[in-house]
């Protein structure tokens, strides 16, 4: 099983049951979930129609980050409507810092320091800097998505009910944390047993699962809240591949909050063969992007 590590260690990859248009173009980086080459213009035209586009990355793969920049630039060039970029790499208490950077009030160095980027994320800054620079140059809003690290760790140790009022200001209401998806729970448990062998920070799988779901719910809540107040925008989400697994992570939770018909698309960037094999049980994503050889 292909695993993606974080402070709590996450899971494998997957996604929506959407069928990509099967128009072949062997020179294109685009693939269907079955490996069929797709025409880039047709895929991009489909993506433009979506309210949310997820660019599922492996955090330590530079090629994924280059693809994210290229796709954001391509969608921006095609759009008549504005774009916002949602970032797993930043946490809501530091939204004001992202806004200051966007306005040109602080430098990149100050953005890293004031958002505690190295402590809270830690992957090389230059992986994400080109996207941030493009957003600033084009004045594209950026959304800080991720649950604050302290809160997720607290839930992993002692559960959702242990959170104090000061913590709850940064997350959805506890009543909105949906723990009912049995298939999702089973996949998380496979990761828990494989990595922790029953020994997490609390030794309690229920708390571990609550922390994973809280992570997704917080990001979904931020995306949906933005769309409700900015309905003409498209939100492009930079996030780990596991968070779009079979739509059970972020996408289904955004859809639940929107309560209206709207389109989302998921893209896996450069998934390896092991991930693709795991996805044979169902559609891994709406699209696969394979970085062209230099």
From TrEMBL:
Domain Haem-binding uptake Tiki superfamily ChaN: start-end pairs: 44-254
Keyword Lipoprotein attached: yes
SUPFAM superfamilies: EreA/ChaN-like (SSF159501)
CDD domains reported in the protein's UniProt record: ChanN-like (cd14727)
A Pfam family annotated for this UniProt entry: Cofac_haem_bdg
UniProt KW Aminoacyl-tRNA synthetase keyword: no
Protein name: ChaN family lipoprotein
Organism whose genome encodes this protein: Drouetiella hepatica Uher 2000/2452
